[in-house]
Each structure stands twice: as C-alpha cells, then as structure tokens.
Amino acid sequence: MKQIGFILYLNGFLCAATGRLSGLIRDVSTHQPLIGVNVMINGTEMGAASDMEGYFRIDNVPVGSYNINVSMIGYEAVSRANVHIVPQRTSTANFDLHPAVLKGEGVTVTAKFFEQTRDAITSSRTIDIEEIRSDPVGAYDIMAMMQALPSVVSGSDQYNEIIVRGGAPGENLFVMDYLEIPYPNHYPEQGKSGGPITMVDTEFIERIDFYAGAFPARYGEKLSSVMDVTLREGNRERHLGEISMNMAGFGGNVEGPVSDNGSYLFSVKRSFLDFVIVSTGMQAVPQYWSSQGKITYDLSPTKKIMFNYIGGIDAINIVGEDNPSLRGAENVEFDSQQ
C-alpha cells in the first residue's frame, strides 16, 4: 500500500508541474486574426497552429521559462523571450505580426544626391510584461521603469514623474487602451503627471509603447513623449484570483470568462502604513485606495467592445497635532478622488 500511495502521489505531482500556453495572433495593420500561424516552444518539440479565429493553445507544457517562436509565410518571424509557464494555470502570449514581402530577384539601386542621416533613429521602445517583471530598477512600477530609459529623467525621488529631453512633466501623454489618463498616479499635482505611487495594476499590462520623440500623428496635444499602455484580456477558460503585498500596498485581483464571448479583469489595492504607523513613529499618514477593471466582449471575430475604468482615493493627515513641535501643522488634511 505504501508503494501504491507513493506512486499516486508522484503521478499527481508530475501532472501538477505542467501548465498551458494560449494566445491570439493578428495582423498588426488590419487587426484581423491570422489562420495557420506556427507557434513553437524553443528547445522542445511542442507547438501548435492558430485556428480560424487566430487563437492557439498548447497543453501540458512543463513549468519553466521559454522562448516562443512564431512564424508564417508572408509575415516577419517573431520571437518572445522569458515566457513563464506556471503550474495548473494558463499563460497568455498575444502576437501582432508585420507583413513581409517575399523576396524575388535582386534589384540594384545606386544613391547619388540624397543620403539618410545615420544618427536619425526614431526614439521608440516597446516593453512587454516579461521585461517589466525582470526589470531590477522599476520595482514593478511602470512609471519608475521608464525613468531608466535614454533621454528620460525624474524631477525628484519622491515622484515617479518623467521628464523627457528637458520638457515639463505635463507635456507627456499617458494612454491606456486608447483612452487618455491625465493623472495615472496617487497624490498628483495640477499640471503634472507624476506622483509617489502609480494607480495602474502592473499585472493587467500586456505591452507598453513609449515614444520619446517623433511619435505618430494620432497622439496629439503633447510635446515631449507618449506612453501607450495596452492591457491584456482576462482568462477566458476559468476564474482565477491572486493576492499580493509589496511596498506600495496590499490587495488582490480576479479574472475570468464572461459567457462564451468575453472576459473580465478586476483589482483593488490599499495602503497599509496607517496600520503600522504607531510602531514607525511617522506623523504624516498617507492612505490611498486604487481600483481598476476591464471587461471585453467579442461582437464578431474581428470586432470587440471594451469597458475600462481606473480610480483612486487619496488622503493624508498629520497625526499628533497637539505636539508642541508641530506648531503650524494643525488640522492638515488632504483628500482627493480620481
């Protein structure tokens, strides 16, 4: 009986040490789903092809970090590094492929009068969630991570605002799923986009496109930079939840399917310094809440409707106002809602 029990336990452990990889593959220009795209996990013999709606799924993938290769005739091949597979969960990796012209006979072109400037490089950078997770500088804060990029600095250590090429903090555009967010941080200042802590849940992010200059014409009314954040969709197979705690606060998020054609994401977080303020000796007690959600519903294979919201509540007050050393700081309170 002991041997049978050990074999059953070992079998259950091996089954739990696998996960699933799924995603959607589209044309970057038309946003149409691509059929028959080859998806291979580098270093293994596992792979799949996208279906009629552009989705793919690979089951029973051993737990670990892999490089994913995506290829199709007529499109540029894409390779994404450090895609993590966790036990008994579905990891999502979406791809947008760029069309590529098939090569034919060579044509020789000789330049005579005009030559492109060699140092005229477009100041753009694309960052995915795996790069955010592995970044040692940003502390899982996307605004702080952008400060490590070339041509970007911060005004002070207390704010995660970004200053690009000597511009003002209010000259930066922050876009999330095609919606402009004027103040994406807690405790913002009028005319500035920075604050001590971001309200955006990093676990919701799929990709960030950052333009430090020469950004497309669809981004208007700003002078310095554009940060275009694309949020992922919720899990469409089952309901999942997660609880987290870090220096920015504690909270949780949930996700799952909505009927057969949609998904949802929801998170709420709160600061915890007011719970331990007695032991720290601090007198200025910050309190803040942040909440974010996204609902996606497919109207057809090529059209979908999305509902996004993000909100925050900020408050700070001075503790110990009767202390003589705090003369002049009586009745200091601050409240705001975004």
TrEMBL record:
Q: Name one Pfam family in it.
A: Plug
Q: Which GO terms fall under molecular function for this chain's record?
A: siderophore uptake transmembrane transporter activity
Q: What is one process in the GO biological process aspect for this record? A: siderophore transmembrane transport
The record's annotation in SUPFAM superfamilies points to: Carboxypeptidase regulatory domain-like (SSF49464), Porins (SSF56935)
Q: Which GO terms describe its cellular component?
A: cell outer membrane
* InterPro entries for the chain: CarboxyPept-like_regulatory (IPR008969), Plug_dom (IPR012910), Plug_dom_sf (IPR037066), TonB-dep_rcpt-like (IPR039426)
Q: Where is the TonB-dependent receptor plug domain?
A: 118-221
Query: What's the name of the protein?
Result: TonB-dependent receptor plug domain-containing protein
What taxonomic ancestry is recorded?
unclassified sequences, metagenomes, ecological metagenomes
